[in-house]
Amino acid sequence: MVENAKSIVQSAAKAFAVLKAFDQDLPELTVTEIAARADLDRGTAFRLVHTLMDLGYVRAVPGSKRYRLALKCLELGFSALAGRDLPTHARPLLREAVPTIADAGSLGMLERGEVIYVERVQNGTERLGIDRRPGSRTGAYAAALGHAILAFLPRDEQVKHLESVERVKLSERTLTGMDPLLKRLDDVRKRGYAVSDGENAYGLRTVAAPIFDIGGQPLAGVSLTIHARRMDNRSFVAVALPEIKRIATELTEAVRFSLGAISLSGRSR
CA 100, 104, 105: angle at the middle one, nearest 5? Predict the structure, then answer.
């Protein structure tokens, strides 16, 4: 949200509204259609379309009164997205949440029943004996980050991952049975995020959400973790959930907008 409406340049906002009027289902539009979709009067839409044409972001469709986006629009986002892997994009987003909202933020991937941490921002959890640096692993069955990824896989893949590691109790709250874990994954899928309250490590609370690839399959997950002494679980979820959803959505969109160029290692998995 913008704190001061006087700081907004309305003409710039209207120009972006014109660009966003186009989509894959409506790649070509008339000025009247653009005005309607951008919530502008026709005269304003006409002037903005011709300004964007002059700048190279919109092109006229030959032999018609329709317009379409030009390839130059790719420069608006691709220069910021290309050449950087998912951990690099995740790092500043996690830093925004640590330590104001959480004590640690993580990006992880799933491999043979384990969560591999590929990016980690932490503030004090290492002093509590929890130092999950990039490259460290934990069983996906006992981690909210693992549940957030597993929940969106087909059932046979879920079972395969869960059977790939020894499932031991890391605390009295850890689920280890196959049926209870599969039910937990069904619940996570329904609500879209996972929560752990001392299941992976006593005294830590975590909220996690999945990141999807361009095919809609889970590519990775992000999580925010807090020490239980800081606040109760319900309060933490209320505070952290909007933030972790925002981070997951932003990273998913980055993967989608880059057409898969952004990945966990800077190349397709």
Answer: 95
Rounded Cα distance between 20 and 58, Å, is: 12
Q: What is the mean pLDDT of residues 31-46?
A: 96
Integer CA distances (angstroms), 145 to 109, 200, 244, in order: 9, 10, 11
Q: What SS3 state is found at 159? A: helix
Per-residue pLDDT tens over the stretch 73-125: 877 766 656 556 889 889 999 999 999 999 999 999 999 999 999 999 988 66
Dihedral of the CA atoms 14, 20, 26, 29 (nearest 10)?
A: 20
Decide: 201 and 171 in contact? Cβ < 8 Å.
yes
Structure tokens at 210: 């999945």
| Residue % of the chain over a pLDDT of 70 | 89
Query: In the prediction, which pLDDT does 266 show?
Result: 39
Specify the residue for token string 């379309």. 49
Sheet strands side by side (includes 58-60): 28-30, 66-69, 58-60
Pick the CATH number of 5-77 from 1.10.645.10, 3.30.50.10, 1.10.260.40, 1.10.10.10: 1.10.10.10
Would the CATH topology of 5-77 be identical to that of 82-257? no
> What is the CATH class of 82-257?
alpha beta
Give the whole-angstrom CA distance, residue 239 versus residue 63. 54
pLDDT at position 177: 97
Specify the pairing of strand 204-212 against strand 194-197.
antiparallel
d(CA 16, CA 118): 35
The pTM of this model reads: 0.75
Express as a percent the part of the chain with pLDDT over 90: 72
Count of alpha carbons within 13 angstroms of residue 19, beta-carbon side: 20
Domain ranges of the chain: 5-77, 82-257
